[in-house]
Amino acid sequence: MNVYKYLYIFVLLICLVYTAPVFSGVADISGNPSYSISGRTVTLRVDRIMNNTNNRTTGSLYLTLRMTQGSSPSTAGYNVARTSISIPDNTTGQLYPGESFVNLVQSATFSPPANGTYYVHLYVSEYPELNTSLDYVTFPKTYTSTNNSDDSNNPVDSGDDGGDASNNSGVSMSGTVSITWTDSEIRILIDRVINSRNSSTGVLVIEAWMFRQIGDTNGYKVASLNLGSLSANSRISGISEIVDFIRPPDGTYYASVILQERNSSGEYVVDRKDFTTTETFSSGDDSGGGGQLSYHFIMLLLAIVFLVNLRKILYRFI
């Protein structure tokens, strides 16, 4: 009898874990990506791209270098270079759960944008949705195009890196970044927060936000975690904290984890992780707290029906 009881509890736990709302990247960029331009060729370098899911294989992955007039890659601009990811051991460009590409060096044809000064972004996408970012980084240096028919006038030239994706302050999140929540609490998981500069940081704060669109700056802060300051060239590893969850107004949102630094000069965003899965909150949710993904809610209902019937079956043998 005890065996069946434990089996029932085990199946229940599996169902609850599977149906919990989790945001974890399908293809996450980490490390310090960089780019360089020589004539009509762009060289893209990425330390790591990892599939942080446990049950989803990616499609063929692509890297795109994008230049925009606004600070977000979703604003108007130009895709100036794009290449499929292909290495000798993986010519399909796909990643199985938990797998990663390491020390990528990929080349692509450079198509100069119209004259002007641009923010530069590198994003990874999945075939066939090549214009939908799974993850992206924004480089600290802008790019100025003065004559798109003559690359010799471009400030990024052979031997001059276009910059790496670490922010200007040298403080960043690295590795897996994910959030899960219940009605009133949210768990924040971050592998590492790294201070790579030669001086201490101000007060670092991790914030979870909900935005109507990926890359937006106006949204709703739903959680906050104070990390304190980091000394020069140090890191915090294995962040796993539960804090209060503040439910946003009804609607459909994209979640983001933002790393803020606060000092005597003000408050600044030093790193940001946007998730591509949407979350819908509805006033019909009687919990009054956090919401569940509609998909996960349906799966939870199916799990309950399954467990009720499983219990009936097991009782026949008890």
Kindly describe this structure.
By secondary structure, this protein is mostly beta strands. Helix content is 13%, strand content 47%. Strands 2, 3, 4, 7 and 11 form a 5-stranded antiparallel beta sheet that branches. A hairpin with an 8-residue loop joins strand 5 (61-68) and strand 6. Helix 1 (2-19) runs antiparallel to helix 2 (294-315).
What's the layout of helices and strands?
Blueprint: H1 2-19, E1 22-23, E2 28-30, E3 34-38, E4 41-50, E5 61-68, E6 77-84, E7 100-109, E8 116-126, E9 135-138, E10 143-145, E11 161-164, E12 171-181, E13 185-195, E14 203-211, E15 219-228, E16 234-244, E17 251-263, E18 266-281, H2 294-315
Antiparallel strand pairs: 1-12, 2-4, 3-4, 3-11, 4-7, 5-6, 5-8, 8-9, 8-10, 12-13, 13-16, 14-15, 14-17, 17-18
Helix pairs in contact: 1-2
